[in-house]
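Hi U.,

Before I forget, here's the chain from the pilot set. I'm dumping it here mostly so it's searchable later in email.
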Amino acid sequence: MAKQLRLLFFGLLTVSFAIFGGLNVWHYFTHGSVDTHMINVSTDAQSFQLDSQNDETDSVAEDSFDLRVKQTQERTLELIMTKLRAINNNSMYRYPVPVTPKPHFQHASDAVRHWSRDSVPVLTLADLPTVSVSGVDCNALFRGDRNELTKVRKFQENNTKTVIPAVRYIQQASNCTRFVAERQYAVWPVNREEAMFPIAFSILMFKDVEQFERLLRAIYRPQNLYCIHVDKKSSPNIHAAVTAIARCFENVFVLQRPFDVFWGTFSVLEPELACMKRLLRRSKKWKYFINLTGQEFPLKTNWQIVQILKVFNGSNNMEGTFKRFVLLNQKLSQIILALLCVSLCETILITE
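Structure:
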């Protein structure tokens, strides 16, 4: 009986270390390459793991880690809010800026070569599309007025929106010059600062070309790069419409190999990785990569996003990923120690 318990003890010990080691190896290969700005955080996480055997030390280390994360977040938020207040007070967003006449281009991206070589015409309100909304108080909506919200909901119920079919976009994008002009894409940067801070975007979409085109128009700037992935399950009309729109811009391209994406699986990452590879192959001058889906919409202008990213200074907010893994390792260590204690106690009792 004692021999069997010893075998059980060593068997549990082997299985426990195998699971523990396997998870660490998996984490190394999936999270081994991180931004250099996060090296201190990962080092803190490793020291946190090594001290996990002492309960009192664990508590102190965890509190210290949480405190550092909280202080970093507060400092970052304070810097961002200061920048945003300065941006929101800038009159450039409220009044058109007089500039020299802007030449006409066949492609929107041709503007990049022009303003990088000569003077930089800036984007004004006159260059952007204006939306006339009747029967709705937009200011009241922004304030969260409940009466206005109820009024808008009733209006939407009684007036169903007509979705523009994908075929219409195929027809409109057949004439790129007219399409870019009529849709009023922003073919100029707001200023030189924005022009010198290009951003790379990926958009994963599978339906509703109208919503995708509205998103692209909102985030489009000639200095940026855009990689579009259309789900393999999407209809041929959607593939054709997105391809037709992308052909009107030199800095917008569609992944030629579509992936069959299923949410919550690795298939979501495959087109993202493919887009990153294509974007790096196209240019290495962009400063940040932002991944989007076709059902998202920006709450900030491109220049405001540039200001926020400059505050980040090349870093990413990744503490959640590290902390989750640290806590997972801590719990696994506690489970392994409990199994060892139980097995050891049973072996001692039987031996006695």
